[in-house]
Amino acid sequence: MSNTQPAPVASEHVELKARKVSFDWEETPLHWVPGDPFTTHTINVLHLLLPAGERWFVHVYKQALPYITDDRLREDVIGFIGQEAIHSQAHDDVLPHLRKLGLDPTPYTAHVDWFFEKLLGDRTLPPGRPRRWWLMERVALIAAIEHYTAFLGDWVLNADALDRAGADPTMLDLLRWHGAEEVEHRAVAFELFMHLDGGYRRRARTWALAFAALMFLWQRGVRFFMENDPSLLDPKASFADFVRKGRQGVLPSTPAMLRSIPRYLSRAYHPSQEGNTAQAMAYLASSPGANGGR
Amino acid sequence: MPRFTTVALVAGAALLVRRAVRSRMSTAPLWPMPALDTPISGYGRGSTVPRKVRVAGRAAPAEGVVELRLEGEGLPAWQPGAHVDLVLPSGLVRQYSLCGDPADLSAYTVATRLIEEPQGGRGGSREVHEQLREGVEIEIRGPRNRFPLVDSPAYVFVAGGIGITPVLPMLRAAEAAGADWRLVYCGRSRATMPYLKEIEALGAGGHLTVVAEDESGFPDLRFLADLPDGTAVYCCGPDGLMDAVAAAMPEGRAPRLERFTAAATTGGTAFEVELRRTGRTLTVAADQSLLSAVREELPGITYSCRQGFCGTCRQRVLEGEVDHRDELLTDEERDGSMLICVSRCAGKRLVLDL
């Protein structure tokens, strides 16, 4: 082992707590980034993946809780669970609005539900090592996914291009409230993984799995939305569009996403090296949705 | 030449595969991944979305009473006895029973009596009377029902003044079901008692006794003492009336009550909780949450927000009556489970599946 142990860069520990939120979708149009269905739907894929995905986080972490021997980490995980439960509910509540606008997400979300509830759900394994192995595998997967949610959270907090494009304020608030909480709790999933297992091979393996799954789910999700959008005559979506929109700043930039890969795979990685807790806390203090919808 | 054939065959096969995959993807967007038979996502409680209604009509069914028709989209179905929370423009939250037609899902109807400050009013009814003009948009929560109408061949309803509101849809339901019902409707004077005409018109199969204080004083409730078994008794009105009904009931029987006064949402009384699978019985102190008592016994129990909105601490209830104080669970979910961080026991003892 080298001397580059994963460690937080600063002692910026904040107490995690779930916030009660309220988002009124009444006024949100189908293309909430005006005139830009590709960007709208690329971000909308979040609403397809997160309700089931974050419900699954909660389900897995509830099982991991008894294995934690560090009291502060346990408090963090408890706060994390509540935040993720609310994230899942908040994104879930966008889906009926999409359905009302003529874009029923159920054909897609039923697959995602199967993916998280069945494929990644609890398995009939003998107690002891096999059961713990499956739990650790899932804890590691969550740590890898949380690397990307923190990346996206940091991105959306700084995505001024979305404001300039006139994006719907309620949707932006949902994304930024969620993004800010992801930045706020970005270290928890990784620290839990390091506390319970920490094996580098597992970290790399589950990263590859999570990355591949996210790519697969995301590109299919964008295609699904574009093809089923009742207002689009030419529902084309390509990777080149993604790169172009990334350059404009309304989506994450492709080079920045590629650069984040080696960071997670570095043995010295710790989530506190990325993102800005102060910025996240400042947003949470001013977010209309996180302050009772007022 | 054989090379050309190979390339053509491979290209042809690739095209066929692409067509096959595309056609499958049009019905199953994540093909070849299976789908869950009963999708979960997108059919949640909607707990993070405010439900907005618009005041579409105002009427005065009696002196000092205003009836509001609140129109909204996608209003949930409700059963007689249900109430909604109105989030008033000032932020005050008040509960009002639904008194309209449960079959009409385009609007809810509530009725409010103005209670002046000297009579113990706390500003909610004044705001309803003065601020909720036609066209005003407000947020509502619910509906919830903690006063449900059970199936019964015979009912006795005792309503006092504005306490008629949850009883009115019950009367209609009892009448429609062909049940035998009796209503004792009390009030200060006939002019202050809402919906009298409507109830008199309804009374074909039932028995109505109107007791106006200025005409005939207080109601005679002695008939409750020899009530046949199987008659359900419902009472809603001032505390004095509800106490009188409870006192007039035969030994060992209790009326179903709906209290208007602000529910005590903090503190509570001590009670016992049995953790059936653990085989332990604990005492929850008056100033202690059920969660904190259970944590002493089961340190690994899951919870998070401790305020009754994240749902992490939900547990199955096997026995006992729950005093639900959360903001999350639906009536169906409340029937058999509870959030142990805020909810308590309405009686002396709870049994949890823990």
From TrEMBL, chain A:
Which Pfam family is one of those matched by this entry? Metal_hydrol
User: Which InterPro entries does UniProt cross-reference here?
Assistant: UCP07580
Protein's UniProt name: Metal-dependent hydrolase
- Which species does the entry assign this protein to? Streptomyces nymphaeiformis
Q: What is the lineage of its organism?
A: Bacteria, Bacillati, Actinomycetota, Actinomycetes, Kitasatosporales
UniProtKB/TrEMBL annotation, chain B:
One annotated GO molecular function is:
2 iron, 2 sulfur cluster binding
**Record keywords, A-Z:** 2Fe-2S, Flavoprotein, Iron, Iron-sulfur, Metal-binding, Oxidoreductase
Q: Which residues form the 2Fe-2S ferredoxin-type domain?
A: 271-354
Domain of life (superkingdom)? Bacteria
| All copies of domain FAD-binding FR-type, residue ranges | 48-150
Q: Which cofactor does it need?
A: FAD
What PANTHER family does the entry give?
CARNITINE MONOOXYGENASE REDUCTASE SUBUNIT, NADH OXIDOREDUCTASE HCR
This chain belongs to the protein called: Ferredoxin-NADP reductase
